[in-house]
Write a structure and sequence with these properties.
By secondary structure, this protein is of the alpha+beta class. The protein folds into 2 domains: 2-100, no CATH class; 104-226, Four Helix Bundle (Hemerythrin (Met), subunit A), CATH 1.20.120. The chain contains 8 helices and 5 strands, in the order E-E-E-E-H-H-H-E-H-H-H-H-H. A 5-stranded mixed β-sheet has the order 1-5-2-3-4.
Length: 233
């Protein structure tokens, strides 16, 4: 195991899995903190990139009621290295569960991760409500503006992720705030049901499903923040 200091060495280490694509990118996944995954070019210091987002993730942890726990975290400890999938190189995303994510969760651990997922949803919604409709153009997101990102992120979760625990709603749910809220409640209810039965999310570990959903929300929330044209106006 590699232990690298990007925090307070006296605090609790943050377990990290590194997932490396074949040609381009490597992803650092702080898998105990769903959504805190960042990528970099192979050869770059991906742990430094992950560390640069610590303060931004701290607001998510605080929103989930985990602020004190997150505040006690310190250096990164690389506990696993995995080969990535095609999308690791193309999108800079994690496509595989870390080994500990395959372990059973206690009820408290499940509720903690659900709280963090809900905090990621809230963060995404809050950012979407305050950034400019038109966003700065650049390589991330293919030049999409705010409303296109909102529809993409909520739509991908509805179509690709939620069905893994049996939640199926019309794609149009993403366009109705009340329906979207009800869908999210149903999603976390089914996560609890699957956890209680000891079931996976089809081919995915339940913890990986939560992490993937959380990452997608935060990745695009932070993208919108970084491209917000209303800052300074």
């Amino acid at each position: 195991m590699d232990r690298l200091s990007y925090g307070d060495g006296m605090a609790d280490a943050v377990r990290v899995m590194l997932e490396q694509g074949k040609k381009k990118r490597v992803v650092a996944c702080a898998f105990d903190w769903p959504g805190w995954d960042r990528s970099a070019r192979i050869g770059a210091d991906v742990l430094a990139v992950l560390g640069a987002y610590r303060s931004r993730y701290a607001t998510v942890a605080e929103l989930a009621g985990c602020g004190a726990e997150f505040g006690s975290t310190g250096e990164f400890e690389v506990v696993e290295r995995l080969d990535g999938i095609g999308m690791t190189d193309y999108y800079g995303l994690s496509g595989r569960a870390a080994a500990p994510e395959n372990d059973p969760m206690t009820e408290a651990e499940c509720e903690r991760k659900i709280a963090l997922l809900r905090a990621c949803w809230s963060t995404f919604d809050d950012v979407a409500a305050r950034v400019s409709p038109e966003l700065q153009k650049g390589p991330r997101g293919g030049g999409r503006d705010r409303d296109q990102i909102i529809r993409h992120v909520n739509g991908a979760e509805i179509i690709e992720f939620a069905p893994k625990v049996g939640v199926k709603v019309p794609l149009e749910t993403r366009d109705d705030a009340e329906a979207l809220s009800a869908y999210r409640d149903a999603f976390v209810d089914e996560i609890r049901v699957h956890h209680g039965r000891g079931e996976s999310a089809r081919s995915w570990a339940l913890q990986f499903l939560i992490r993937r959903c959380a990452w997608h929300m935060l990745d695009h929330a932070w993208e919108m923040e970084d491209k917000d044209l209303s800052i300074g106006t």
